[in-house]
Design goal:
Oligomer: single chain
EC number: 3.1.26.4
Distance between the termini: 55 Å
InterPro entries: RNase_H (IPR050092), RNaseH-like_sf (IPR012337), RNaseH_domain (IPR002156), RNaseH_sf (IPR036397)
Shape: globular
Radius of gyration: 26 Å
Protein name: ribonuclease H
Catalytic activity: Endonucleolytic cleavage to 5'-phosphomonoester
Number of domains: 2
Structural class: alpha/beta
Family: Belongs to the RNase H family.
């Protein structure tokens, strides 16, 4: 039986689906072979993009479901993956598979299936009352599966093992039902960029320092706050300079730099809420964080959504908060201090 493009057999081995998927993908390999002609063909980056669009996307679709198949049938798809990578990078047939993964920056399919399954699991856990949230094996059935290792565990148990091995068992997943803001009341966020006319690579740091001094003279009535995020190997942190105080916070190692930058901004807003002053300007060197705040939709970063909600609450209390982008590592004192505070938190 075929349901939403996935073939279900009577014993749920998913072998018919895997064979059908491999046959379709092998035909699509011919497109890569044509495009990889040495005289006029595309380069490795273009070939990888084509592969990801027309072949890898098919392998990804439904992998959360058919990933419960035995390892032997699943290995039939590895041939397609390896053949495509050899075509994209021009490797010999005798080239080790591990070298293909390194050159093409691709994961093995079994790791990719685990990654996509983890992403799906986290999405389901963020939705209130999702059926998978409270789905787990009874103790009796769990003992049965442990006693019979040849039985395939259900998805809810397999993914818990994957998350545990990845060190993410202690991660708290934020609940999110729907977009916070209705379409007629989406907040309009903007930021100041007094350095937009200058290229950092061809401009002396002293020019940026003078521009910042001019900007501060123009907004001298606004108290300045500097935020920054940092990520090193295994550690993530953020720093806030709220003169005369300095704050450093360490985050979970799985957080991205963008998350660290947004958390720093959110913590700065919390410090502002306890202040008697009403005029503030938050300075950050993360353009991606500011752009994330500019695009308010249902797919926006959850911390960015919290920032917009908190800003609206502060505005109703009479606060006037501006945001300004500053270039990093050009000698702007507050930004350098925030960078040091963030690195100090990530190295604790």
């Amino acid at each position: 039986m075929r349901f939403l493009g996935v073939i279900f057999d009577k014993k749920l081995t998913f072998l018919p689906h895997i064979l059908s998927l491999r046959k379709k993908c092998e035909k699509l390999l011919n497109i890569l072979k044509v495009l990889s002609t040495t005289t006029w063909g595309a380069d490795r980056i273009c070939l990888l993009r084509v592969y990801q669009a027309i072949i890898l996307s098919r392998l990804d679709y439904g992998c959360v479901v058919y990933g419960s198949a035995r390892s032997t049938p699943l290995r039939k798809l590895d041939f397609v993956h390896h053949s495509a990578l050899r075509i994209c990078c021009g490797a010999f047939r005798t080239s080790p598979v591990q070298s293909l993964y390194v050159i093409c920056h691709q994961l093995p399919l079994y790791l990719r299936r685990k990654m996509l399954s983890a992403h799906y699991y986290f999405r389901t856990q963020s939705v209130a009352n999702h059926p998978l949230q409270h789905l787990s094996l009874p103790i009796g059935l769990r003992r049965l599966y442990l006693a019979r290792s040849f039985n395939i565990l259900p998805f809810c148990e397999r993914i818990k093992t994957v998350i545990s091995h990845a060190g993410l068992s202690d991660v708290t997943i934020k609940q999110k039902d729907s977009f916070t803001f209705p379409p007629w009341d989406v907040p309009c966020f903007s930021y100041i960029n007094p350095f937009s006319s200058f290229d950092k690579s061809s401009t002396a740091p002293v020019i940026f320092q003078q521009l910042f001094a001019s900007h501060r003279h123009q907004f001298s009535s606004f108290d300045s706050i500097f935020t920054d995020g940092s990520k090193s190997e295994g550690y993530v942190g953020c720093g806030i300079i709220f003169p005369p105080d300095t704050y450093s916070y360490r985050l979970h190692a799985s957080c991205s730099v963008l998350t660290a930058e947004l958390v720093a901004i959110f913590c700065a807003l919390q410090k502002i809420a306890a202040s008697q002053q009403r005029l503030f300007c938050i300075y950050t060197d993360s353009m991606s964080a500011l752009e994330a705040l500019c695009h308010a939709d249902k797919r926006m970063h959850p911390v960015a959504e919290d920032i917009l909600c908190y800003m609206r609450e502060l505005q109703t209390q009479g606060f006037n908060i501006l945001f300004c982008w500053v270039p990093s590592h050009v000698g702007i004192v507050g930004n350098e201090q925030a960078d040091s505070a963030a690195k100090a938190a990530s190295n604790v």
